Amino acid sequence: MDARELFEQVLNGIRQDVKMLQENRGVTPGLAALLVGDDPVSQTYVSLKEKDCGKVGFVSRVYKMFDYPPETREKEVLNLLRNLNNDPDIHGILIQLPFPDFVNREKVFETLSPKKDADGLTPYNLGKLILGEYVFEESLLPCTPKGAMKILEHFNVPLAGQNAVIVGRSALVGEPLRKLLQDRDATATCTHRHTKDLYKRLKEADIIVAASGRPPELYQKDSYRLTSDMVKEGVAVVSIGVRRDPATGKLVFDVDFDDVKEKAGYITPNTGATGIMTRAMLLKNTIEAAKRLTAVQKP
């Protein structure tokens, strides 16, 4: 399930929306990204996001908050967010995870305006997702789960009635994706390090989403990588978890692609799939936010 063609289709649609906003409302969508920590994968992602913004005609700003010392960083992040919430030139705000321990995630996401929440992670937007009060294409949903769903949809992977197992339960990926799959009538379960009979569950799964981000190269305890002996014939596999090995500089993934592809009916490559669709959904969320924020209010 290579998503590069789908990625370009989404970007083409966004370009048309940008043109419409510029011609009809005099608005160019703006996306601001805050790097709170100095995680190398996060920095790579934000760098790619900047290039994506250029491709579709967005204004892009990046704030390297990790330049501030630990004792003042949270205060600086909160002050910047308040300013961006009120900045008419910014329509989407991305707060890049993970955070260092000394920055309070709850405070940060409570400060971010839900109307500009480009990653769909404020309590308001996550709450709307859990309640089912959303429109898939238009609502500000978490980008990686939304991108994964777009891939499954694009390749016509059956969802209704299917047994879906997600390895990982984060609020960023696992839990939102479980809800999105459930809303398409799959039976979805998030598993974790304390799950009993994990391999049995994987063997019975029709769909497996690997999103733990604990590759054996970096974690001696509770590490995870999906291999062919863990899956049944014809399974659909979505690879999400990724880390950069500081010793080699290489990316390491949750799925042994070359091994698993021999048994899978559908499988995303480790690159050119969920990563690029996460970026595409960030742009999609931002354009949808721009449309709403600049809509002419009827008297």
Verbal overview:
The protein is an alpha/beta fold. It folds into 2 domains: 18-116, 3-Layer(aba) Sandwich (Rossmann fold), CATH 3.40.50; 143-276, NAD(P)-binding Rossmann-like Domain (Rossmann fold), CATH 3.40.50.720. It is 41% helix and 14% strand. It is built from 10 helices and 10 strands. It has a 5-stranded parallel beta sheet with strand order 5-4-6-7-10, with helices on both faces. Helix 7 links the parallel strand 4 (163-167) and strand 5. Helix 1 runs parallel beside helix 10 and helix 2 crosses helix 10. The longest helix is centred in the first third of the chain and has 22 residues, at 4-25. It starts with a helix and ends in a 6-residue tail after the last helix.
Which key terms come to mind for this protein?
299 residues; alpha/beta; Rossmann fold; 2 domains; five-stranded parallel sheet; 10 helices; 41% helix; 14% strand; globular
